[in-house]
Amino acid sequence: MIRVLVNGALGRVGGEVCKKVWAEPDLDLVDVVDIKDGQVALGEGVVFGVNTDLVKAIENVRPDVVVDFTRPNVVMDNLRKMLPLGVHAVVGTTGFSDADLQEVDELARANNTAVLIAPNFALGAVVMMKLACEAAKYFPHVEIIEKHHDNKLDAPSGTAIITAQKIAEVREAMRQGHPDERETMAGARGADYEGMRIHSVRLPGYVASQEVIFGGQGETLHISTEPVSRECYMPGVALGCRKILGRTGLVYGLDKLL
Length: 258
Fold this sequence. Notes:
Layout: E1 2-7, H1 12-23, E2 27-33, E3 39-41, E4 47-49, H2 54-61, E5 65-68, H3 75-82, E6 88-91, H4 98-110, E7 114-117, H5 123-136, E8 141-148, H6 158-168, E9 191-193, E10 196-202, E11 208-216, E12 219-225, H7 234-243, E13 249-252
Parallel strand pairs: 1-2, 1-5, 5-6, 6-7, 7-13, 8-10
Antiparallel strand pairs: 3-4, 8-11, 9-10, 11-12
């Protein structure tokens, strides 16, 4: 059994993670943590009281893996607290800088543990990025549109960023659009990553959709993923809990474990 502690258990994704871990025969939900007091109900009369002290919870139950779905402004502090305690981490919180990722890798290696940071745990999103990289070899003109719920704090999304990074590995940087193009309203053309434009939509009703649009002579190619509920992340989270054990350092992206 893999002992799992869920941090951010009262959040929308965190609650789903608790249910998934509880339901898996090889995963053992040993504790739940959040900054707020409360309870997590798992059905069949099973209720977990929420702990508010992450360090004490880890010291008390000694999990193998901590799953963190919290907030970008606290996730680094969480990792600085948990990794010296010798646990592995599976992180779905986004908003990491390059300097953050380097620090996480160094901290994990120093403590002989590992951290999976996945901008997106949905298997469909992983396949979307794989297909986009194949398409970019033949269609260098590309823009990304990502659409999330209006409570998401970071823009562009981690999925959009890693998609652009992966495409850049197979596509040379280039300027897109008319050479004399100008924005009459700042930001109209979106963020610029090596010539690729990234657009962020924030509206109620979305979960975490993304479309990668390629343009060629007389045609366009659209590759998209449209999750309908947060349950789509759960197979990837469970996979991360199983596969991160035995590794050392930072693993960035779920595709590295597939």
